[in-house]
Amino acid sequence: MNVLVSDAQVDAFQADGAVVLRALLTPAEIERLRAGIEKNLAHPSPRAKVASERADPGWFIEDFCCWQENPHYRRVIFESALGRVGAALMRSRSARLYHDHMLTKEPGTRQRTPWHQDQPYYNIEGRQNCSFWIPVDAVSRESTLEFVAASHLGPWLMPRSFRDAQARWFPEGSLSDLPDIDSDRSAYRILGWELEPGDAVCFHMLTLHAAGGVLAGRRRRVFSVRLLGDDIRHAPRRWQTSPDFSNLATELPAGAPMEHPLFPLLWREEAGAELIAPLAAEAGAGSGGPAIPPRRSWPR
After folding, report:
1. Is 59 exposed, middle or buried (0-12, 13-18, 19+ CB in 10 A)?
2. pLDDT of 128-164, one tens digit each?
3. Within-domain flag for 212
4. How far apart, in whole angstroms, are the C-alpha atoms of residue 118 and residue 187?
């Protein structure tokens, strides 16, 4: 199917909702991501948020939707194999960027990322989607992203704010709550991998996942790229999604494909990568469409 992803890896992604891809990115691409993350940390966007508590001896910061202003991110998104590999894993004829997401846990950060699904926080519907989680530092098994295998096949579960567990999206009681996975981990098949720079984990947006903190002396900088496949459609919400694509509904009606400058095409089977990659030069700042809203604290 693809020299960079095997049929077995596609099958694993489809069955388990998560798969590890060793050495997917080149050393040069990892260096670009490091430069991009450092630029991002030095100049966070208005959408950035600190996700750790004040008493935490470390620091956990996230930022969203920075590809238009960060040339390092843009080069990796448009010029690497991510679009082609994502399309193969999704069994989709195309791959479109949804958004980028930087997550950095500085040494000694205790803050855990709680178990959750991503898709209920979003403004999309459909099954063909995937997220790449790409560390630029070595990640221990204790600090890696973990997944409940095959949970992407089950129902949507209630999205709640991470700090106070409030149902700020779907009405209370309209979706089932997440099970208490950590109370009996043996009841679930939990996947997780020790990772080196260049490795990537790819997971479905409905796969339950969580992550631990990091030890003193260990830094965990991660760049995540979220992709959309053929069947994804716009699903405007009455509430603020995370990230929030402000006023998108005025330009993209409900049920429409995500064909908009905010979500550029990265791969299309009939075109080939050599025809898609040049779009990177055209997809910088000022590409049109509604602005990403300047929010310093996402509700998630």
Report:
1. middle
2. 999 999 999 999 999 999 999 999 998 988 877 676 6
3. yes
4. 22
What is the C-alpha separation between 223 and 94, in angstroms, rounded? 22
Burial of 77 (0-12, 13-18, 19+ CB in 10 A): buried
Burial 87-113 (b: 16+ CB within 10 A, else e): bbbbebebbbbbbbbbbbbbebbbbeb
Task: Give the C-alpha distances (Å, rounded to integers) separating 109 from 39, 60, 176, 267.
Answer: 21, 7, 31, 37
Return the ∠ at Cα 198 (arms to 99 and 138), rounded to 5°. 100
Neighbours of 299 (CB within 10 A): 20
In a domain, 113, yes or no: yes
Q: Angle, to 10 degrees, between the axis of helix 27-42 and the axis of helix 71-79?
A: 150
- Whether 300 is covered by a domain: the verdict is no
The owner of tokens 């002396």 is 217
Q: Give domain status of residue 38, yes or no.
A: yes
Three-class DSSP category at 219: coil
Please list the rounded mean pLDDT of every run of 10 residues in the chain (300 residues): 80 98 98 98 95 92 97 98 98 98 97 92 96 98 97 87 70 84 96 98 98 94 98 92 88 96 94 45 45 38
Domains of the chain: total: 1
Domain at 127, CATH number: 2.60.120.620
d(CA 153, CA 19): 15
Q: Domain range holding 65?
A: 7-281
Residue 147, CA distances (Å) to 82, 113, 180, 211 in order: 21, 12, 14, 9
Predicted structure pTM score = 0.89
